[in-house]
Specification:
single chain; about 270 residues; alpha/beta; eight-stranded parallel beta barrel; 12 helices; 8 strands; globular
Length: about 270
């Protein structure tokens, strides 16, 4: 990590000083219409989200379950793209200078754009980092360097099957926070094993002091509170994407995700 902090570092430092857990929320850019995405982002913050992961739509989102896959498909129908995602972040920054925003997606659009252009675009738009689901640690060095040089964070995933040696390799590259995938499978899967979460978070903590946030399988306040008990926060995605997909328009989507996030925020703070 560079010595200079960015919004992600400042947000986690603030939460730790307050004894609170992070609520990290995920929506797909362009899902529900490109014209509604920024309003949805502001609604997430107003309802209690601490960090936003903005999904970059991709035609083959291999780590996603059916709910988020459909969100990607809807967003692509609205002509969402990586460049439009960057424009949405810049628009969001017009009213919110503080909430960390991470672009979460797959490497193909970054490769097509070019790593340096992508990193410059993140910085210029006011994003704070990236999470590239399918970029393995062995190939992440060049993008890591480009992001670090611009004081941007590179978020990595760890899973229940990640070996200690690989945890060490990945956490040496990681910055901002580490996203722990709480279960085997794709986004939206269920059957949380809280004992496994606890044991694996303890294992990861032996290798890094970065904040640890837990995602996959979190559907409500109770599950968010449970998984974050031994970590630094919860990551919520599928239930929000589902709410957007089931809404008739942008207003209904705002109301639905607002209620979901507020309930999780209350549970985390209780």
């Amino acid at each position: 990590m560079t010595e200079e902090q960015n919004r992600i570092d400042r947000r986690f430092a603030k939460l730790r000083s307050e004894g609170r857990k992070a609520l990290v929320t995920y929506i797909v850019a362009g899902d529900g219409g490109l014209e509604n995405t920024v309003d949805l982002m502001h609604q997430l913050v107003a309802s209690g989200s601490d960090l936003i992961e903005l999904g970059v739509p991709f035609s083959d989102p291999m780590a996603e379950g059916p709910v988020i896959q459909k969100g990607h498909e809807r967003a692509l129908e609205h002509k969402a793209s990586l460049r439009k995602c960057l424009a949405l972040v810049k628009e969001f920054r017009g009213k919110d200078a503080d909430t960390p925003v991470i672009l979460m997606g797959y490497y193909n659009p970054i490769e097509k754009m070019g790593g340096e252009v992508f990193a410059d675009g993140l910085k210029e738009a006011g994003a704070d980092g990236a999470l590239t689901v399918d970029l393995p640690a062995e190939e992440a060095g060049p993008l890591n360097g480009l992001l670090s040089a611009r004081n941007l964070r590179n978020i990595f995933l760890l899973t229940p099957t990640t070996s200690d040696a690989r945890i060490k390799q990945i956490t040496e590259l990681a910055s901002g926070f580490v996203y722990y995938v709480s279960l085997k499978g794709v986004t939206g899967a269920g059957h949380l094993d809280l004992d496994s979460v606890r044991e694996n978070l303890a294992r990861i903590r032996r290798h890094t002091e970065l904040p640890l946030c837990v995602g996959f399988g979190i559907k409500d306040g109770a599950s968010a509170k449970a998984v974050s008990a031994d970590g630094d926060g919860a990551v919520v995605g599928s239930v929000l994407v589902s709410a957007v997909g089931e809404s008739a328009d942008g207003t209904e989507a705002k109301d639905r995700i607002g209620a979901l996030v507020a309930e999780m925020r209350t549970a985390l703070d209780s």
